[in-house]
Design a protein that fits this description.
- The protein is built from four helices and eight strands; from the N terminus they run E-H-E-E-E-E-H-E-E-E-H-H.
- By secondary structure, it is of the alpha+beta class.
- The protein has one domain: Hypothetical Protein Pfu-838710-001 (Beta Barrel), CATH 2.40.320.10.
- An eight-stranded antiparallel barrel has the order 1-5-4-3-2-6-7-8, surrounded by four helices.
- Strand 4 and strand 5 form a beta hairpin.
- The longest helix has 15 residues.
- It is globular and about 50 Å long.
Length: 183
């Protein structure tokens, strides 16, 4: 499956959650997610961000359930995702290090997960970076990516009128934050 995802900054979480309720979106769960992001220099641009199309590995701790995941980086489209459960964070770290990856940084967030029709909507409070909404739709083939992206954009307009999609990954934002705070 291919994940099609858009993301936008959220200035008013209360208003967004009220709009989700009014639309009939179903709140499914709240998660505490900790992602350890890994990289290799040859997969990064001169700003330390993943090149378009590369696979970005991470170790995700989702309330104590740990997985190693690889996400294909496509900032304006859909990308492959491959994941497998691992016994613990340390095992995942050893696995990625054996593949030649180095830990870059950690992203922590609290995620409220909603379901609306065939969309997953995540309302994220990301440590150091702020609040975001992610709208995701899974598709089975490349030719369905653009129509799904348009549907995600239409839903974003319903949720936050006038919102601009942020064609950036949390990893990009965290790298920017790190670079700004080195000075």
């Amino acid at each position: 499956m291919i994940e099609v995802e858009i993301k936008a900054r959220v200035n008013d979480l209360t208003s967004l959650k009220q709009t989700l309720d009014n639309l009939g979106a179903k709140m499914e769960t709240t998660k505490k997610l900790v992602d350890k992001i890994y990289g290799k220099p040859e997969h990064l641009d001169s700003n330390g961000k993943y090149l378009e199309g590369e696979l970005c590995p991470r170790i995700r701790d989702n309330n104590g359930s740990v997985r190693v995941e690889f996400k294909e980086i496509h900032r304006q489209g859909g990308g492959m995702e491959i994941e497998t459960p691992v016994a613990n964070i340390e095992f995942g770290m050893r696995f990625l290090e054996k593949l030649g990856y180095k830990e870059a940084f950690t992203i922590s967030k609290v995620r409220d997960c909603y379901k609306y029709n065939d969309f997953e909507i995540d309302v994220d409070q990301v440590e150091l970076l702020g609040n975001f909404v992610e709208i995701e739709k899974m598709v089975s083939s490349q030719d369905l990516i653009e129509p799904a992206r348009q549907e995600c954009l239409e839903l974003l307009e319903k949720l936050i009128p006038g919102a601009e999609p942020a064609n950036v990954k949390y990893g990009d934002l965290m790298q920017d934050w790190i670079d700004e705070n080195k000075k």
